[in-house]
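Q: What does the assembly look like in three dimensions?
Context provided by user:
Components: two
Sequences:
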Amino acid sequence: MIKPEIVSQLQKITGKEGVLTAKEDLNAYSYDGTTTWTHMPDVVVLPTTTEQISRVLKLANENKVPVTTRGAGTNVSGGSIPIKGGIVLCTVKMNKILDINKTNLTATVEPGVVLQNFNTALAKEGLFYPPDPQSFLGCTMGGTVAENAGGPYCVKYGVTKQYLLGLEVVLANGYVMKVGGVTVKNRTGYELVMLFTGSEGTLAVITKITVRLLPMPAASKTMMAVFDDMIAGGQAVSNIIGSGVVPAKSAFVDNFVIRRIEQMTPMGLPLDANALMLLMDDGNPAAVETDTQQIVDILKKSGAKEVKIAKDADEAAAYWKMRSAGFAAVFGAAHTVLAEDVAVPRDKLAEFIKKLGEISERTGFFIQYLGHAGDGNLHPSIFTDIRKEDEFARAQAAMGEIFRAALSLGGVLSGEHGIGLEKQRFLKEAMDPVALDLMKKIKGILDPNNILNPGKIWEEEGA
Amino acid sequence: MVAKTKYDEIKKFEGDLEQCMKCGFCTFWCPVYQEEWVESSVARGKNMMIRGLLAGDLEYTKEFAARLNKCTLCMACTANCPAKANIPNIIVAARADTVKARGVKFPYNIVYRCVLPRRTLFGNIVRFASWFQGVFLPRTEGTIRHLAMFLSALGKGRNIPQIAPKFLRQIVPVVNRPPAGVETRMKVGYFTGCMTDFVFPELGEHIIDFLTRNGVEVVVPKEQGCCGAPAFLGAGDFDTGRKLADTNIKAFEDVDYIVSDCATCTSSLKDYAKYLADTPERKEAYARFGEKVYDISQFLVDVLKLPASAYRAAPEVKGKKVTWHDPCHLVRHLGIKDQPRQIIKSIPDVEYVEMPNADRCCGMAGTFSVYYYDLSKKIADKKVESIRSTGADIVVSSCPGCEIQLIDSTIRNKLPVKVMHIMELLQ
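A: Here is the predicted structure of the complete assembly.
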């Protein structure tokens, strides 16, 4: 338990309203979007300024109190769960958009800005920030940087790291450090902005974020294709990309998700479809027309039973809403859902899907999946119940097989969710041991007392 | 170990608890979270608190209740939830379980158990208290008058309308037939609700007049009481809720349709079956009753199917710009969205303009605004900005609760718009 004098010092820093200690409140900061993990913090701190964060960290560092930084807690890796107790440092009250520069095509925001609010503000200026984790209604900008989040748009536009120009971070000892800047080009020493990107709150607390922007594409078209099997769908994506057209967004759901969505929010999806693919093309209107035609042709040649082009923005939005509801569809389906986040090289997608079928048969677990397809990122899930020890152990072993199958095809352990708690037991297999050791050494330099989000990414020695 | 019987009502909605998979999308839609920015404000946090309660990790303490009840029951979370987890159901159920265990606190026990079910007594207390109103509460301008008692407890210095000198029940007869020359198409019961009865009787008279002129025989049973929303939804007093439900069902036995001008009443009358049915007989009776209940705009459009020509502007609204505020109980609890808009758009001489976020909660939410007045005001301020952006002269709604909130918040924010009930637009 945290010492009462630390709590009273925290209250001096943020004011009483910025410190929560009631059991009910602690309970409400004990989880994220995963189903497997919960842990109560000892105290929740809601700072409103960088200076407050600096003082909180200084205090925590001197007293060796763990600090788990949290935005909206929408991540799905266990990353923001205070597994060692201590302080949850929740940045949602630091939610100002500090600058949108239309001529430099940059914006600077505080970490608590909700991605959707950022996009709404940008849309008013005709601007566009592509990284689109499907938690965009809740997730904060700070969280998307800490998790290096991506989404359907990354097929064409890449993930968060491709847009970051500068950060202000607070180090474990309270020092406020600026890295990067506001220029698109910057060759000043090591790429330290990248060091903190995807660091899952283990290296510093992010307090200011400068990103580059794009002009909003003038036109877009969304297509929906129905396939008899996921393998054919996976192959279709490779065929499209191979033909020289890169869709802006792509997403892929299986029959399970189609049926669950129809059950939750009926929208007229084909219940008998084994695989449903969504694709979007964007750019200037003329190019979108020809690209769309080309994509439709390839989809049909690749075995699509049916291809629909959304007639307007509303219909397109409804299709994509289905995709963002996908995780809800999956996570609500069982007591415990183990959701993978593997990514394979795009041209290996069909092969990977075939392997998933084999694993399902061998282990006896139904493997459900949705994903992005065009970027090789897939989310296979296994439904289980953590309360049933034996079954849960077998489910975890099956997850291991899925991950190894991805690895054998040149894939990675996590495409966009991060490692957190959920995937740390696979990390050793997924990384060069020297690289893993280097990460630990970096952590040791920046956070010698191991106060920042301890217990995450890699398994602790002896664990 | 938690006794099995301790959370009976919550357990009825366990499915909703389990539906939530903590995606956090509700944070974006929750009017309370958007002001407070703490997790216990939002459906996901409340859901996890209740799970903690059932698991025995948390107790239903004062602190617990303070957090759980900080909810307007606006249903924005459920409406936008990918899994459609209905957390407001659980909040109401949790209130009921507490009442079962501990009873209702003074003075609310007197109010809910003794006053609400006795219509005339209720009216007289309200009137008695209103004599003192001007002494204790600030006077407001223009046509705004002061109201008392619980309605004044709602006040806490807010600008609220005054109690009417004569209640609707004292003005109108039980049976109101269409005027000579107008054919009687159907017979409906008019559920007046407390606000129209005690505060806005002229609205009630106007509605009866409009309906009768359009061929509807309107019955206003004297035996009807409060819909029960403050008791069973607000306070979790299901016993009183049942008493009121049974009274109302009896009062409206002889009609096929029941219309109400108050979104909260309409929704609550329909909610009897969901929350209050404790026996198979009640379940059946409550469900049958609920099916007969219609919101006034829904009744005009879907049942009476009035032609557009039936909607003519009242003289004082001619040439005005009008915007519509969706009461939560109408738009999300009952799914009524198009009918009121259709009516307003049908009125010639009135310009309709849609406000941004028309369906966002105004922050009134009955007893919520008593307990959390400052928060309620902040939520209302966002609504006022929406109204302001339209440049409308009149904001209409169909929930006297919302209307009180809109009157208060537009005056406080110095926005010169008139707040009206949708039926007041009509001649």
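Follow-up: Chain B is about 50% helix and 10% strand.
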